[in-house]
Amino acid sequence: MSPRTSRQAHVEAAAPATPTTPATPAADAFAAPLLAWFDVHGRHDLPWQHPRTPYRVWLSEIMLQQTQVRVAIPYFERFVAALPTVAALAAAPLDDVLGLWSGLGYYARARNLHAAARTCAEAHGGELPRDFDALVALPGIGRSTAGAILAQAWGDRFAILDGNVKRVLARYHGIDGWPGQPAVEKRLWGFAQAHLPRARLADYTQAQMDLGATLCTRHAPACTACPLRPGCVAYAQGRTGELPTPKPGKALPTREATLLLLRDAEGRVLLQRRPPAGVWAQLWSLPEADGEAAARAWFGDHIDGDYAHGEALDSIAHVFSHYRFNMHPRRWRAVATAAAVRDNDDLRWVPRDALAGLGIPAPVRTLVEAQFEQDQEKQP
DNA sequence: AATCCGGGGGT
DNA sequence: ACCCCAGGATT
């Protein structure tokens, strides 16, 4: 297998000059019901479908990269009205193109579109080439977009793999793993190609995207209306809610804090009420300081004792939705609050039997209760 | 293969 | 503030 073939999205050695194919649609349980559904429920009045020229298909595919259909439609109509052909686009100043793109975002798409049009004008007779490799060589066109253009504009037998198709295939085949992961994406491409029908490639391509956009949605898919339900692994296993596997969350930022675990002569623990806003708002917790210096300062303000007598305990990691909280507890025994500091609404010495009645963050409660357990072991 | 890039819209 | 969306380019 040549490198060229292995990189290709198509499954035939060469695309047929005309899309005419024997009227024996593949018996694939995927494509056939999907096409039948598309005939009745698919989207047939999108602006780039009438007329469905290569240039309009290309423009729509670029506009729809990372952009929702509803958002792209008015931009598409404005754009093709101003620049109706590849030649017109190639001849236009870049500033005009960017002006037509203004508000759509991802402006590199517009710059690439313009550059690609000029390449077409110079190297492809002023038209978009009907060739997979030539398309992929143009800026802004990758494997999926090239396949979409060839299939939709000419009915050539190429697969696509956009966000919609990834979602549909991941569910239909019960594929675990984030689709952006190369190994997962490779499997998805394999299925995308295996399901290609022998005819109606333009409709089939649109049908996949319509299914993903209207039924097999990210949240609350309409499985009861889905033509692919009979063969859908995720549906059979009740896993439509967990497939496709979501993108792994990026590394959470971390925050470090020192916790002061203070015991008095009676063994009570000093607890402090947390501020009214923020995490663990208004719960009782250990006095907390941002770092050693702040801990030392708080100790000096509130406690009679020697800070250096504190012993470092094992750190505690707690993960919030938006950051990782690393707590570094430090323990003192038999200390007292300074004369000026008295129990109040926000700071008090708490005996063991009063812990249960207080709102205390779970990791802090675990830490404090472990202290009392240690007391018992030492003097049963 | 992993990372970066990009901007509007919805939550 | 965060995630999603008809991905591609770069390293």
From TrEMBL:
Gene3D superfamilies registered for this protein in UniProt? Helix-hairpin-Helix base-excision DNA repair enzymes (C-terminal), Hypothetical protein, domain 2, Nucleoside Triphosphate Pyrophosphohydrolase
Asked whether the UniProt record includes Disulfide bond among its keywords, one would answer: no
Entry's EC annotation: 3.2.2.31
Q: What class of enzyme is it?
A: hydrolase
- Which part of the chain is the HhH-GPD domain? 63-214
**Annotated spans, Disordered:** 1-23
Which Pfam families does this entry report, sorted A to Z?
HHH (PF00633), HhH-GPD (PF00730), NUDIX_4 (PF14815)
| GO molecular function terms listed in the Swiss-Prot or TrEMBL record | purine-specific mismatch base pair DNA N-glycosylase activity
Question: Sorted alphabetically, which SMART domains does this protein's record hold?
Answer: ENDO3c
Q: Spans of biased composition, class Low complexity? A: 13-23
Q: Which cofactor does it need?
A: [4Fe-4S] cluster
Q: How is the cofactor bound?
A: Binds 1 [4Fe-4S] cluster.
Q: PANTHER family in the record, alphabetically?
A: ADENINE DNA GLYCOSYLASE
Function text: Adenine glycosylase active on G-A mispairs. MutY also corrects error-prone DNA synthesis past GO lesions which are due to the oxidatively damaged form of guanine: 7,8-dihydro-8-oxoguanine (8-oxo-dGTP).
Of which family is this protein a member? Belongs to the Nth/MutY family.
Name of the protein in its database record: Adenine DNA glycosylase
Native source organism of the sequence: Luteimonas padinae
Output the lineage of the source organism.
Bacteria, Pseudomonadati, Pseudomonadota, Gammaproteobacteria, Lysobacterales
